[in-house]
Structure to design on (248 residues):
């Protein structure tokens, strides 16, 4: 059976829409940094499980997840009530396309995220292999309100001349109100950071956000000489949706 029951070891609320939880790690569970796994609850015996990117790195003895709280959501309406000591079900098979295997080595690695799409990048920015593969890592995180800037203090503490962090907030006053995707497309991002314009020959992009942002950025990159990683070969950009629009 791929699912095992794991104990919740901590819960952290970021905003009325987002929270993180840490759990014990199944003993047989292996994954690549940047991958996702399904986790779930059995409220009336029947498993309700959803995909979650793993925030914690693969050398940690615990697992961490960053979650949305959808008030009517079958899983998260319940997951948001979970407390330390409760249990969740964790699948032991991880997968995903936001790992180092899905991108060619290069100069600067741009990690463009929105909302809970930050999760896999929290893992990657703490992976030493990433800094062996790229000269610099630029993490862009766009949210609507300031409290949704999950892990802001932790990320700021990690920043140095090789890790840049660009938080942006679109619906509340904030020093950077633009969407990350717009900053990238207008080139303002590179000017602000004092970096060369992103160039498909040298630089790489990973995208994890809402389905519209993923689509918009993928289309833009493909029209500007970037190559998406597919089964035909490893390119210079890769994406994962942070969620699926079931009702659209
Ligand atoms: C590859 C992959 C990785 C994912 N990783 C994460 C993750 O790390 N953290 C996370 O919170 N969710 C993640 N999701 C979404 C997650 O699988 C669930 O959809 C989410 O937990 C809500 O579950 P639910 O049963 O409450 O509602 P669902 O019925 O699954 O979703 C209801 C609606 O809520 C909206 N929604 C769902 N998830 C989100 C979200 N994350 N942000 C904004 N709106 C959303 C969508 O409009 C969706 O149609 C991921 C999804 C995929 C496909």
């Amino acid at each position: 059976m791929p699912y095992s029951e794991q104990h919740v070891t901590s819960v952290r609320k970021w905003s009325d829409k987002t929270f993180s939880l840490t759990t014990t790690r199944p003993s047989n569970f292996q994954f690549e940094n940047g991958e996702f796994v399904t986790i779930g609850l059995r409220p009336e015996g029947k498993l309700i499980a959803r995909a979650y990117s793993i925030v914690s790195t693969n050398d940690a003895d615990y697992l961490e997840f960053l979650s949305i709280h959808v008030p009517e959501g079958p899983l998260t309406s319940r997951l948001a009530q979970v407390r330390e000591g409760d249990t969740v079900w964790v699948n032991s098979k991880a997968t995903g396309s936001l790992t180092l295997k899905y991108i060619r080595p290069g100069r600067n690695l741009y990690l463009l995220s929105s909302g809970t799409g930050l999760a896999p990048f929290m893992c990657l920015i703490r992976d030493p292999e990433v800094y062996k593969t790229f000269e610099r890592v630029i993490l862009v995180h766009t949210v609507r309100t300031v409290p949704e800037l999950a892990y802001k203090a932790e990320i700021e503490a990690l920043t140095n001349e090789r890790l840049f962090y660009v938080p942006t907030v679109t619906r509340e006053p904030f020093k950077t109100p633009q969407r990350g995707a717009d900053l990238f497309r207008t080139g303002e991002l590179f000017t602000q950071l004092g970096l060369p314009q992103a160039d498909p020959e040298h630089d790489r992009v990973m995208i994890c956000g809402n389905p519209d942002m993923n689509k918009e950025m993928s289309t833009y990159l493909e029209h500007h000489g970037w190559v998406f990683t597919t089964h035909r070969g490893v390119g210079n950009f890769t994406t994962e949706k942070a969620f699926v629009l079931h009702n659209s």
Observations:
- The mean pLDDT is 96.
- The chain is about 20% helix and 30% strand.
- The two ends are 33 Å apart (CA to CA).
- The longest strand covers residues 3-13.
